[in-house]
Amino acid sequence: MISERGKALTIWIIVFTVLTFTTLLLRLWAVRIQKRDVRLDDFFVIGAFISLLALLGTTFWAIANGLGAHTDTVSVAQQTVQKKLLLSSGITWTLATILCKLAILWLYTQIFTTRKFKLAAYILMGVTVSYAFIFIPIFFTQCKPVHAAWDPVLSLTSCRPITRQEFASVAINMALDLAVVILPLPVVWSLRMPTRKKIAVSLMFSLGLVIVAIMTWRIHSTVRATKEKDWNYGLYITALQSLLELWLGIIAANLPTLAPLTSQLIMPKIMSYFRSGNSKEPSSGRRLVYGMRGGEDSALKREKFQMLVNEDARVEVNETRHLNKIEAGASSRSISMDDHSWVDVEANGIGMRRDVDVSFETFHEPPKKAHIFGR
C-alpha cells in the first residue's frame, strides 16, 4: 500500500537524488580536468552519498508499507517497518550529514592555508566527529533491548521518548552548520577584492544557511509531533526534512569544486557559439585566442598584438572577454597555462585574477596593413 504522501515523497526523492548525483559526477569530472589527485574531501562526499543511498533504500521500503498514511489505516506489521526506518535513519542520516560537514571543512583547509584558520577548521572537524560518536550510540540504544524500538508492545515501556534526542541532535547539528558557514567569512572579507566579489564568495560559502532553515522547520515539526497521535501521517514531513538536509548538504559541498568546468568547458563553448553566430564572413584562415593577464605591462600587451600582424594577412579583432576568477591553492606559485596566459595563486589560498581574452581571425589576402585597436 502506497499512500498519496508516499507517492509525493517518491517524486521528491527521484528529482533531488538525480540532481545530487549529477553534482557529484560533475565534481569528479572537475577533478579529472584539473588533473589533480582525489582529495580527502572527495572521499567524504562519496561516503555521504553512499549513506544517503542507504537511507533512501529504507525509505522506499517504508513507502511501500504505507509511510504517510493515517496510522489507523496501516497494519501492525507496516507500523513495524516505519519504526525500523526511524531507527536506521538515525544512523545513516547522522553519518551522511557528518561527512558533508567534514568535506566542506577539509575543502576550506585547501583554500585558506593560514595556520590559525586551519587550526580552527581542524577543531571544528573534531567537534563534528565527536557529535557522531555521541549520537549514533544514543539513537541505537533508544530502546533496551534494541528490537523494542519496532515492537508495538515493548516500545511503550522500554524506550526513551524520541523527542528528547531529536531536539538535542537537531539543535547541535544546527550550531555546527552555522559554525561551518561563518568560519571562512572573516577571511574572505579581509581579502583585497571588490565588495561584489566578496559578496559572491560569501554567498557560495553560505549555502548551509538553507540547511539551517530546514532544521528550524524540523524543530517546529518535532514540537507539533509531540501533540499528534497520528504519527505515521506526520512521518512524511520528517522524512522529507531529513532528506532535504542531506541533498542540499551534498550539493553545497560539491558546488565550490565545479569552477574548472565553468572556466574551461562551459564558457568557451558559449563564447564559441556566439562567435559563430555573429560571424559576418566565413573564415579562410585561422582563429587565435590570446589571454592577457590584468597586471601585464602595456608594452608587453602591444607586443603580443603585433605578433599577429604581417604583410600577407588581414587581422580582425572578433571579440574580447573580461574574466574575473578566484584561484585557490596551497602555496604561492605561477603556472604557465600556455604561451600567452598565466595563473597566479596567492599564498593565503585565494587570489583574484582579471583576464582579457582577445579573439583574432586572419584572412590571407593581397598585402594590406592591419590596424588593431585593443584595450
TrEMBL record:
It comes from Endocarpon pusillum (strain Z07020 / HMAS-L-300199). It holds the Pfam family Fung_rhodopsin. One of its GO terms (cellular component) is membrane. The keyword Membrane applies. The keyword Cytoplasm does not apply. This is Rhodopsin domain-containing protein. It comes from the Eukaryota. The chain crosses the membrane at residues 12-31, 43-64, 84-107, 119-140, 167-187, 199-219, 239-261. Belongs to the SAT4 family. It is a multi-pass membrane protein. Its main location: membrane. The lineage of its organism: Eukaryota, Fungi, Dikarya, Ascomycota, Pezizomycotina. Keywords: Membrane, Transmembrane, Transmembrane helix. It is found in: Membrane. Residues 26-263 form the Rhodopsin domain.
